[in-house]
């Protein structure tokens, strides 16, 4: 039985649970439930704090887990990233009072507050900068105003938390992070099925199906607009001058693609959602 760690709280929790549900797995009904068994799929879910997930997986106590790349690296756990997931995106950055710092070297000798102390220490050491890292549990943006640090290093999504505290980003990107699937080893039995199912959910989110009718002589030009994953499906229509085309298109390109197809001469252009996929 595959033992899977899932975030029980925080930013990643809801989307991770929704993704597993869409992938056909049992999920908890009550947020107080910490273990959910799913015998039909031969898996068991453990709802844990996202910061602890890499520790459980790295120790081998659990086989796989969903957490953030930043949390994985900060944990120094032996778990490895198996797949990058399409949610929980953020960057990890230094920030300081407006105008105070310009480059990474300006951190030499100052105090940097963060909840990700190992990640920040590793980065500073690799860059040859010596600074004092002040470990805080959260809301680190307040540390400068309250005088316990000169700068901060934290998760930035929109940047609005920093701005509200009169801070600005400076220096290099410490890390680009998002939710990741991690594992204790890459040959855990059952892992491949989980990966394929999760991949299918991501494809279903990222792509739509487009169907359209097209004068047969325009197939090559239409295929250049909608090449599909392998190649478009082209079927005959009763009117032999026309064909029907079915193809997958990235969701974000959908409207531009419809405009281009219409301008080319395609008609009856229909878009449908994909509910599940195995690619
Ligand atoms: N806006 C965001 N705020 C915090 N974490 C985010 C954000 N966007 C993505 N993440 C990612 O979520 C993970 C943090 O999980 P965590 O459970 O600590 O979330 P949280 O919202 O900070 O919860 P809490 O503050 O209650 O501990 C990290 O991998 C982080 O990169
Ligand atoms: O760039 P933004 O969109 O403003 O998002 C980033 C902020 O969100 C998170 O805080 P969270 O609410 O998780 O509180 P915490 O700092 O106590 O963890 C993170 O730690 C940043 O403070
Ligand atoms: Mg937080």
From TrEMBL:
Primary location group: cytoplasm
GO function term, MF aspect, one: ATP phosphoribosyltransferase activity
Regulation: Feedback inhibited by histidine.
Residue ranges of domain ATP phosphoribosyltransferase catalytic in the record: 49-198
Family matches, as Gene3D superfamilies: 3.30.70.120, Periplasmic binding protein-like II
Keywords, in A-Z order: Amino-acid biosynthesis, ATP-binding, Cytoplasm, Glycosyltransferase, Histidine biosynthesis, Magnesium, Metal-binding, Nucleotide-binding, Transferase
Protein localization: Cytoplasm
SUPFAM superfamilies: GlnB-like, Periplasmic binding protein-like II
Pathway as given in its UniProt record: Amino-acid biosynthesis; L-histidine biosynthesis; L-histidine from 5-phospho-alpha-D-ribose 1-diphosphate: step 1/9
Xref: PROSITE patterns: ATP_P_PHORIBOSYLTR (PS01316)
EC number(s) per entry: 2.4.2.17
Cofactor(s), names only, from the UniProt record: Mg(2+)
Ranges of residues in domain Histidine biosynthesis HisG C-terminal: 204-275
Catalysis performed (reactions): 1-(5-phospho-beta-D-ribosyl)-ATP + diphosphate = 5-phospho-alpha-D-ribose 1-diphosphate + ATP
The organism's place on the tree of life at top rank: Bacteria
Family: Belongs to the ATP phosphoribosyltransferase family. Long subfamily.
Role this protein plays: Catalyzes the condensation of ATP and 5-phosphoribose 1-diphosphate to form N'-(5'-phosphoribosyl)-ATP (PR-ATP). Has a crucial role in the pathway because the rate of histidine biosynthesis seems to be controlled primarily by regulation of HisG enzymatic activity.
Family annotation (NCBIfam families): hisG, HisG_C-term
Protein name: ATP phosphoribosyltransferase
Gene this chain is encoded by: hisG
């Amino acid at each position: 039985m595959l033992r899977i760690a899932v975030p029980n709280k925080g930013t990643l929790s809801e989307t991770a649970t929704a993704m597993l549900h869409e992938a056909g797995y049992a999920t908890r009904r009550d947020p107080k439930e910490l273990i959910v068994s799913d015998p039909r799929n031969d898996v068991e879910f453990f709802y844990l704090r996202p910061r602890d997930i890499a520790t459980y997986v790295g120790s081998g106590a659990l086989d796989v887990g969903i957490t953030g790349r930043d949390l994985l690296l900060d944990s120094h756990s032996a778990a490895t990233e198996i797949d990058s997931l399409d949610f929980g995106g953020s960057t990890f950055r230094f920030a300081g009072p407006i105008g105070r710092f310009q480059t990474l070297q300006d951190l030499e000798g100052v105090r940097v507050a963060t909840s990700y102390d190992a990640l920040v220490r590793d980065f500073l050491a690799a860059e040859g900068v010596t600074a004092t890292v002040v470990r805080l549990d959260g809301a680190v943006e307040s540390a400068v105003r309250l005088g316990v640090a000169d700068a901060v290093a934290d998760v930035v999504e929109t940047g609005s938390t920093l701005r509200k505290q009169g801070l600005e980003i400076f220096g290099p990107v410490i890390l680009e992070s998002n939710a990741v699937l991690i594992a204790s080893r890459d040959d855990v039995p059952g892992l491949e099925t989980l990966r394929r199912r999760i991949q299918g959910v991501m494809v279903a989110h990222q792509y739509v199906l487009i169907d359209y009718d097209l004068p047969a002589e325009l197939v090559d030009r239409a295929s250049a607009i909608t090449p599909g994953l392998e190649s478009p499906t082209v079927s005959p229509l009763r009117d032999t001058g026309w064909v029907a085309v079915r193809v997958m298109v990235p969701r974000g390109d959908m409207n531009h693609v419809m405009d281009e197809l219409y301008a080319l001469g395609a008609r009856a252009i229909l878009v449908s959602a994909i509910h599940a996929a195995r690619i």
